[in-house]
Amino acid sequence: MSRIVHPFDPLYSENSRVLILGSFPSVKSREQQFYYGHPQNRFWRVIAAIFEQEPPSTMEEKRALILNNGLALWDSIASCEITGSSDASIRGARANDIGGILTACDIRAIYCNGQKSHELYRKYIQPATGRAAVCLPSTSPANARWTLPRLIEAWGVIRAAASER
């Protein structure tokens, strides 16, 4: 198992109000150099549904969906040892520094996509920022017990947080 460094930058703008943190990019995401690249990951369908939009298909549409709705995207992990895309295999994680995002944007809420992201956030990032994050159920296909409708309902809190002015 070799150490892999996170291969792409965070996605945010000065209008971002909600930060969503995954754990670490999947193999497909690393190949595409963009977030949630595995076609079975339900992230894009969930985000589109909570903002009542069509699911994006291109990278440009995905960027627009995030930025036009006051969101920011990144991952809790800057580098780690990982087998394939399995969060359970992550070893030797080093956290991302989200300070730049918090300085550039008026981030009002932080959400973690799944337990691994939240666990690493609480262990490494929260002590530096002093800010709590909410754990949402993972949109990964590995989280099969959460159906798409249940995910959309749970993730709906993001819309309310992003729309607070």
What oligomeric state is this?
single chain
**Coarse shape:** globular
Rg for CA atoms: 15 Å
The count of strands amounts to 7
Within CATH, the superfamily carries the name Uracil-DNA glycosylase-like domain
| Mean of residue pLDDT values | 93
Report the helical percentage. 25-40%
Helix and strand arrangement:
Blueprint: E1 3-5, E2 18-22, H1 27-32, H2 43-50, H3 59-67, E3 71-75, E4 77-81, E5 91-95, H4 99-104, E6 109-113, H5 115-129, E7 134-136, H6 148-155, H7 157-163
Parallel strand pairs: 2-3, 2-6, 6-7
Antiparallel strand pairs: 1-4, 4-5
Helix pairs in contact: 2-6
Descriptive report:
- This protein has 165 residues and is an alpha/beta fold.
- It has one domain: 3-Layer(aba) Sandwich (Uracil-DNA Glycosylase, subunit E), CATH 3.40.470.10.
- It is built from seven helices and seven strands; from the N terminus they run ββαααβββαβαβαα.
- The strands form two sheets. Strands 3-2-6-7 form a four-stranded parallel β-sheet. A three-stranded antiparallel β-sheet has the order 1-4-5, with helices on one face.
- Helix 5 links the parallel strand 6 and strand 7.
- The N and C termini lie far apart (45 Å).
- The mean pLDDT is 93.
Tags for this entry?
3-stranded antiparallel beta sheet; globular; 4-stranded parallel beta sheet; 19% strand; 165 residues; alpha/beta; Uracil-DNA Glycosylase, subunit E; 7 helices
